[in-house]
Amino acid sequence: MIYFDNAATTAPIEAALKKYLDVSSFAYGNPQSRHFFGREADKILEEARKSMLLDLGFKDNHNLLFCSGATESNNLAIKGTALKYKNRGNKIITSAGEHPSVLKTLDELAEIEGFDIVKLPLLANGCVSLEALKDAIDQKTILVSIMAVNNEVGAINDLKAIKEIMTPYRKALLHVDATQAVGKASLPFFLADLISFSGHKFGALKGCGALIYRKNIQFVPVNSGGAQESGNRAGTVNVAGAAAMSLALSIATKSMKKNLETVKEIRDYLLNELRQIEGVSVNSNPSCLPYVLSISLTNKKASVVVESLSRKGICVSTVSACSSKESAKSYVLEAMGVDKHCYLNPIRLSFSPKSTMEEAKTFVEEFRKSLEEVISL
Amino acid sequence: MSDNYLMVHYGELGTKGENKKAFINQLYRNLTHRLKGFSSLSFQKTRDRIYVRLNDEIPGDVIPVIQEVSGIQKISLVEKAGKSIEEIREKALSLIKNEEGKTFKAEIHRADKTFPLSSYDAACSIGDYILDHTDKVVDVHTPDIVVSVDIREEGSFIYAHSYPGAGGYPLGMNGKALMLLSGGIDSPVASYLLLRRGVRIECIHFAAPPYTSDAVLDKLKDIIARLGDFQADIKLHVVPFTKLQEAIYQHVEEPYCITIMRRMMVRIAEKVAKNCNCLAIATGESIGQVASQTLVSMRTINDVTNFPIIRPCATLDKIDIIAISKKIGTYETSIRPYEDCCTIFAPKKPKTKPKISECEYFESSFDWKPLLEESIEQINDVVFHNGVEISSIKEEGEKQ
Fold first, then answer.
1. Chain A with chain B: Cβ pairs closer than 8 A
2. Section A128-136 average pLDDT
3. A377 to chain B: which residues are within 8 Å by CB?
4. Residue range A344-360, pLDDT digits in tens
5. Which residues in chain A are closer than 8 Å to B209, comparing Cβ atoms?
6. Across the interface, which of B215, B250, B338 has its CB nearest the CB of A375?
7. Can you give the pTM of this predicted structure?
8. Average pLDDT for B96-110
9. Most A-contacting residue of B185, B211, B336 (CB-CB within 10 A), to test interface
10. A contacts of B217 (beta carbons < 8 Å)
């Protein structure tokens, strides 16, 4: 099997699995419990918290909250602060290329709470238009939510430039969905007020994620109940998952540079090979984070080719296998301005440090064959 | 233990002359099979009704299950009483008090001819008693409530409330049809309507990987699992259709592709139907719903076979089909978004009035017969029992 769908989820690394099993077996106490066993679990949890903040370059002014993943983290970051600070203003700025857990959450806020949501356009390279941000931001803006790395094409947004534009607008918080960046790229996350991510994108387990937030920020909780996670996220914390995620992050951080080189070599090879194939148009450019490579088919149906590859044991993704032509489209590619057939027929390859050149070569071969076998519709 | 019964009233079968016994036996088998999860029920079969004695079971649990069994007109919740007119009147009164409505009539079936009162006298006696003790009035023509009393040797059975049954015929009475199952909304509904009419089904599906996703097969399995409530054993014939489909696309002008494709499907279905003793082919088509389902299209597609093609949804609106699909629980599965042969190969401008002569012309332009034979040879059969897949066998050109 060739697994090039790591942006959807990675295989958990062995060390993380072992950690999960160890903590679950030997320190399964509830960190809220007062007895020694609970305190033991609490200690593991706090170590994980500290280690992750450190690995991501945060100093004392941020806190980390464990949750179930990026979707929950995005929901809490956006709903939690928008509702808390709605008296400061009603404008929220985001981009057209965000993940549905950001866009749909904002749509809900617009509908239920009457927030004014501005969706910034994307540039042809997949980055958010900073000019548009300059035009849109004003004193009514309470939140800017922009992803660090786009999940479909790998475009990296310039957090420093965004922060600079925001500086005069002191009421506006910056939320960064860093799901495709954490553990993969060393970006200045500390510039943001709120940072969301999932563990299963860098070798930890599914169901584990985090929200990092500046300590002075308050939330209207999305989950109400117990006082866990400083009262911001009720529910017993997944201690074993947190410990495994912290370990996976520290491993990823240590080998980040080397991993990036491995993945870049593969991406560059594929980018170069695929762009020479007739009927293929490449959407990601060399400046994108090399973990993701987006291409489009110019005269065949992507869902058919993906299915054909799947039957050969090669896993890549299209946007979705929807039958309805409208919903199968990539709204990210559409926002980047690629032509219609291309945004209706995207294929995303995404890599992990475990991906090999061998696999990349086999992929090119099989991909060519699939393209030939499948007739145009 | 209460002395409550459910009385199962036969559907149209009640009017069938010589076949009546077979009908009742089949219904009895189907009903007891469907209710075998309720261990304390006991059954009694008579010429006019089946009595289900509830014993410890709760009527609200049992009735919905019976409502799914075809061949039943209605189900009444019945209380048993002794055979004195006083006792019968008392029971009738207590039942009618729970019913909404202003007008009523009493109906007596006097199966036990030794009962001292005539049907008319008994009805008058019960009616008088209810008039005296409630504010309801008699209307013998269009009553809101009918209080029915069956007087039988073993006692009297009294009921005022009935639940609609599924109607139709007991499954298995009307032969077997081969159902073209795509995975969409319509074909599971058509399957249900056939089953309701007493027709057993086998299913045939045309798979064209990689154009269609293997996930469609999982979807079909879930649909068949739901249909398993109506027919315990269902066989699914999966036809590999890719090569034939590609050939059609390469040789036929696009507006005619879907028509030719449907003609090929019918040709294959006919052969399979013959092999597995199906008397008809059935589809989920609804007149005019899409280009390939206009009457002209149906006529042109139908031309390749002399098997009857039954289209139970033919005259239903989409909204009605969806309602049935929700009722039988296949809707949520049907709308899972995977391409099937009919959606992915749908031409941009399909022909709404395809001509038979044009089809014949296109079909003469390429050698499809070997491809069709190959498809049939490579059919894969999957057998389901009570919705669970029990085997998958390669059928190497089964001949009978």
1. 46
2. 97
3. 211, 249, 344-345
4. 999 999 999 999 999 99
5. 307-308, 311
6. B250
7. 0.82
8. 92
9. B211
10. none
Average confidence (pLDDT) over B114-120: 92
B38: burial class by Cβ within 10 Å (0-12, 13-18, 19+)? middle
The average confidence (pLDDT) of chain A is: 95
Residues of A involved in catalysis: 322
- The domain locations on chain B are 4-167, 176-394
Distance (Å) from the alpha carbon of A339 to chain B's nearest alpha carbon: 19
Minimal CA separation from A105 to chain B, in Å: 23
Q: With an 8 Å Cβ cutoff, are B214 and A370 in contact?
A: no
Distance CA A199, CA A20 (A): 13
The CATH T-level fold of domain B176-394 is Rossmann fold (3.40.50)
Find the CB nearest A322 among B209, B337, B345.
B337
- Mean pLDDT, chain B, rounded, equals 90
Residue of B339, B348, B349 to mutate for A, most A C-beta atoms under 10 A: B339
**Fold observed for domain A14-254:** Aspartate Aminotransferase; domain 2 (3.40.640)
Neighbouring CB atoms inside 10 A of A137's CB total: 20
Tell me whether 0.85 is exceeded by the ipTM: no
Which residue of A301, A307, A340, A374 is the best one to mutate when testing the B interface, meaning the one whose CB has the most B CBs within 10 A? A307
Q: Kindly report the nearest CA distance between residue B345 and chain A, in angstroms.
A: 7
Query: B137-165: per-residue pLDDT in tens?
Result: 999 999 999 999 999 888 899 999 999 99
- The fold of the A255-373 domain, in CATH, is Aspartate Aminotransferase, domain 1 (3.90.1150)
Q: Say yes or no for a CB contact (<8 Å) between B213 and A303.
A: yes
What letters, b where the CB count within 10 A reaches 16 and e where it falls short, cover A314-330?
bbbbbbebbbeeeebbb
CATH of the structural domain B4-167, one choice from 3.30.2130.30, 3.30.930.10, 3.30.565.10, 3.40.630.30: 3.30.2130.30
Q: Residue A326: pLDDT above 50?
A: no
Average pLDDT of the segment spanning B11-15: 67
- pLDDT tens, A272-319? 999 999 999 999 999 999 999 999 999 999 989 999 999 999 999 987
Which residues fall within 8 angstroms of residue A353, CB to CB, at 6 or more apart? A255, A258, A259, A262, A263
Per residue in B163-213, pLDDT (tens digit) is 999 999 999 888 999 999 998 999 999 999 999 999 999 999 999 998 888
Residue B23 has pLDDT above 90, yes or no: no
Q: Distance, in angstroms, between B337 CA and closest chain A CA?
A: 5
Residues of chain A within CATH 3.40.640.10 domain(s) are 14-254
Of the candidates B251, B267, B276, which has an alpha carbon nearest to the alpha carbon of residue B362?
B251
Contact B210 A310 (CB under 8 A): yes
Nearest-by-CA chain A residue for B213 = A307
Per-residue pLDDT for A168 more than 80? Answer: yes
Q: Please name which of B75, B129, B69, B135 lies closest in space to residue B102, comparing C-alpha atoms.
A: B135
By CB atoms closer than 10 A (0-12, 13-18, 19+), residue B147 is buried
C-alpha distance from residue A255 to each of A14, A184, A210, B131, B336 (Å): 15, 9, 21, 91, 41
Contact criterion met (CB below 8 Å) for B335 and A321: no
